[in-house]
Write a structure and sequence with these properties.
Elements (H helix, E strand, L loop, with lengths): L23 H43 L12 H6 L7 H15 L7 H15 L1 H13 L15 H11 L23 E2 L6 E2 L8 E3 L4 E4 L8 H24 L7 H21 L27 E5 L3 E7 L9 E6 L12 E5 L3 E6 L8 E6 L6 E4 L10 E6 L4 E7 L25 E5 L3 E9 L8 E5 L3 E6 L4 E7 L42 E12 L8 H4 L15 E9 L4 H6 L34 H13 L2 E3 L13 E3 L7 H16 L17
Antiparallel strand pairs: 1-2, 3-4, 5-6, 6-13, 7-10, 8-9, 9-12, 10-11, 12-13, 14-15, 15-20, 16-17, 17-18, 19-20, 21-22
Helix pairs in contact: 3-4, 11-12
Length: 697
Amino acid sequence: MSPDAPAPAPDRASPAPGDAPAPPEARDDERSNETNKTSSSTKRASKKASRSSRRENARSKARSRHDPWAHVDDLAGTKHYDVLGVARDADARTIKRAFREKARTHHPDKGGSASVFAAIRAAFETLSDAKRRAAYDLLASEHEYRYIPGVTQRARGGEDAMLDDLQRLGLSLDPSKQLVVLCEVCGRPSNKKCFACGVLFCDFCARKLHWNPERGVGLHYPVVNKPGHLRRSLAEKEMEKKIEEDARARLTADPNYRHDAELAEIRRFKERVAEREKMANPSAAASNGFGTPSRFARVFDKQLSRYYMWAQTARKVYVAVYIPTGYADKDLRVEVAPDGGFAGGGGFNSSLIHDDDFSVSRASGSSASGGIVLVQPEDSPPVVERALAGLIDASAPVETLRSKDGRRCALSLTKARPGEQWTTLFEGDPSFARCARQPYTIAESNDEVVVTFDSLPFWIRKDDVHVDVTDLGVLVRIESAGLENLHRTFWRSDDDDAGDGDQTSGDGDGDGDGDGDGNGAAKKKKKHEPFILPTTAAWSLAKDETKTRVSKTSSTTSSSTPKQTSRVDDVSLELVVGKRDPTSQESQFKKGIVQDNRFDKRTWNPDRMLGARLFREDQDDFFLEDDLVALVFFETGEAYVPTKPWDDERPSQGFVARDCSELSENARAVLEQLIAMDEAEDGDFPGDVPGDVPGEV
């Protein structure tokens, strides 16, 4: 060592030269002091960490109270698939195979973890059950397009990327000052703000639940406050309704206006006539010019027969006709010609007498015989071209009336033999087909149908009666009782002849939408469910001991129809047919009531009323019965009034009205026009002249 170098500093751990070494007790005290200092600092650090942990737990609990998703373990809805390592669209075999592979590795008996195996087993039990898997997948589909902070990502885009960058940098941005305000539920551009919690949302999330933990608002649907919105909406609807009413008033002011239901009826009529002509002459679908009687003059057509009905008294036969192709500015040809043609100059060719409200025609003839009735509008096929089944008095005029708009007309025919009861109007018709008064009454319930024929002759025996009931209808033949061919067809829910049977018309336009504009969309027809059980049909003859002869007081009444006097020895025929049991839908939603003809929603029923007649041949879609009731009442002072299927206030079997107050509103309107016409003519027409029928019934 150099003599100029400084001497090294003495070491604290080693004793200085010449000093005696420290005793052992002193060294132990020094170590004890150092240990105490270390333990005290450790305790202080432990207490500080414990306080921090408690504060963090408190904050976490506070957040969980406002965050409903904090308690959800599998928020994304994919945990079970991740545990088994399969895709979300994996089938049952793939899931089972994955479970077996995981079980071999993680089963506790194989050295695996019990908690991991429990998760694997829970995943397999959930995904192997179809119902549980569907419920589990519903959660994932619910959150697929929903943004949940910390759980799901926002929808990718320029604005979202910028917000993510700002969030990573620890910066914040007021959403109300963004260039594009984003939905806080899904991240799309927002255009609404929840009135309940202030969360911004978009149209896609208008029906999604959301929450706002800052305001302490739990899960709820979006609520939007729009002052004056209801008032403006109601005003707009009222304005639209007013515009539609004004347009409808302008349309209906035109006598040639037809709403959708009437236009559909015109198409149906023309299509049916074209089918008939094609059947008559397959090589030429065009008509024969209507110069000669149609080959179908003695054929009953169920579709075309809907357009006429008839009634009779002791002297007269009245025929009411609905003309689908009739218009106010078109002429109407009404003739009763001898059976052989419509040659000019002979028969019952009529000339029309026009007036402001109605048109009356009188026909003259020179021979007493039957004939062919022709009702044909201008530029249209005939609506009626049929051969009469009975004889009429050619010396009496055949009087006809038509409505101002050309849609309805009526004929008055005088019987060649007064007092004779007609059982059919046209040749080829079933007994009493399209007659306003039928020889039977019908009583319906949910279990059965009872058809009763009263006032049969006393000589009728069971050998004279033949009854055949099928799924389509019923055929009754009673020899020597005027019912040799009473054939009726059961109502069907898919009945095309009566229009759209599942529509409801309570608005006067037939479209069933309740607005009266005739623009209602046609509903699909239901599949017909047969409700009659032919195998349960049973009939019996019985002599009614309770009926008595007509009293002297009733003999003074005029005859609205040929009297069917009930005598002590009269016989009645009763036919009972059962109905099917209610379907599961009817039991669940219709209180176990069979949805048959009693609940039919027909196009022409007024005020959305339900009901149709059991037999299609008895159905009156165009309210022709009201015209016939008025005509009969005008002649005799009384008339049989058939009860409408939807009318619960009147007797279900019909009744004889002897006061005009008992007639329907339509029938009274027709009767008033008949009386006014008779008074205006100053007695030129006899009192039994049929009158005008209103253009709108």
